[in-house]
Amino acid sequence: MKIEIKLFDNEKETGQGFPLAVSISHQGKRKRKNIAFCQSKHFLVDGKTISEKHPDYDTLAPILMNLKIKARKLILKSMTDIDKVYQELFAVDFSQIGFIEYADGLIAEMEKMAAEMAKYDLKGSNKIIGNIKCYKNVIAQFGNFAQNTSLQNLDFETLQRFKNYNLSVGNSKSTIHLYLRTLRTIYNKGIMIHRLVDEKPFATVFSGLKVRAYDSRKKYLEREAITELETTTLFKATAKQKYLDLFLLQFYFGGCDLIDIYYLKERQLRKGRVIFERTKTNTGTRIDLKLHPKAAEIINKYKTSSEWLFPWGKEKNEYEIFRRTYQRALIYIQEKLNLEVQPDGGHIAVKVARHSFANRAKVLMIESDITRELMGHERDDVDNYYKDKYPEKVRDMALFEIISPFECLK
In this structure, how many other beta carbons lie within 10 angstroms of the beta carbon of residue 72? Predict the structure, then answer.
């Protein structure tokens, strides 16, 4: 009797990859059950499991591990009937599992995964912890609406009641949209893992929650405001200078997310370049940038002799406290320098550095695909064929043009 997890990459590839299945074989007889879909680059042949780059790693990896444990036990029983082995391996009837029950179980598995990952990838672990906090918040609010609803029977009416309640208590459309997106993510994972029929309960529930384009314009600083931040000495002798420098470093790093700077390691700086993966994407988009002298100056000011480039605590709660303090410091700096956020005013937020970089690239009419590579934007399947099509020198010149117009690369 042979039971193994296999990627059937000899079959037709879908947008999500090839079928990932449990294969059972004995004396010429075979039986299999598809578990999920997986791209070849995300399947570890030796370990018969998926890599951390799989979009659903935090959910799928524990399921695969559980199946491997059950398979070993069945093999030790010396069973020879494939049908009976199949029945025992997939004996649980997931069609009746409650939605809240499933969500709680998913959260528990994610917590275990985060604890294990923390031993070797603290940034990845903290990302999962952030998702856990979001899931817990939404499930706590959704519990009264779906307490007796199964995963498979979650319906539009239940979701609509939840939506209407949130509207009635004054929650914003964007907040409600986030709640429903989170529920949809949990539902989709459950349907995928347990191979249930997708009744598409979310098909029209987002109606009326879309924010018009002009209401969601990205806030940014113009080049003059960035220059003011670069040249001011007002905060040089204060703790606020650290946060000002970090904002500029975000800008110099292609408008990167704060979390990617916060968790940079010394080994990610090599031969005058910085290389990291963008945490905010599911695919861990790789970013490779030349260090501008202004960026190097900031790094040298704060770097430590440890594996981490910067000295701030790396636990999830420490990062969250740092981020809140950073946000308050940016507002303080903005008020002192009387900086105006475009296009409609308001406070400087952590994301403004990213939007400022993108806007500056647009003003300079830099090719949008170059800007994508500098900023680590995810692309669709067609665009993936053309990733990294620009030579390193071209990307470096575009980056330096955005940071320091008319300054030539040396």
Answer: 10
